[in-house]
Design brief:
- By secondary structure, the protein is α+β, with helices and mostly antiparallel strands.
- Helix content is about 30%, strand content about 25%.
- The protein has one domain (about 1-95): Alpha-Beta Plaits.
- A 4-stranded antiparallel sheet has the order 2-3-1-4.
Length: about 100
């Protein structure tokens, strides 16, 4: 599995509008991309911290294809008016183990 994290800063008065665009416009498009397993928004406890869009992919190849297709930039552009700075993108391979006790509860 492969994860991409896009960190974004919003002015406090832009947060609710940005979240609406994210969930109404961006999420459905990203979920339709080949290899996308999930997309979620991490909201900071402190409103002055960054929001993080987390996308999970079957593979790096599929995540890279999403970015090079131009769709990623189109999604960033949907939030341009709400951003208070340049978004930052980081990518990670996922090393995953499950807690066998968690499945029992």
């Amino acid at each position: 599995m492969f994860v991409r994290l896009t960190s974004m800063s919003f002015a406090p008065e832009q947060i609710e509008g940005a979240k609406k665009v994210y969930f109404d416009d961006i999420v459905p498009i990203v979920r339709r991309q080949p290899g996308c397993l999930d997309i979620m928004l991490l909201e900071p406890i402190d409103e002055t911290d960054e929001h993080i869009s987390c996308t999970m992919w079957n593979s790096k190849i599929e995540a890279d294809a999403y970015e090079t297709s131009g769709v990623y930039q189109q999604m960033v552009n949907k939030l341009t008016n709400s951003l208070s700075g340049q978004p930052s993108l980081k990518s990670y391979y996922v090393q995953h183990t499950r807690n066998p006790e968690a499945a029992k509860s």
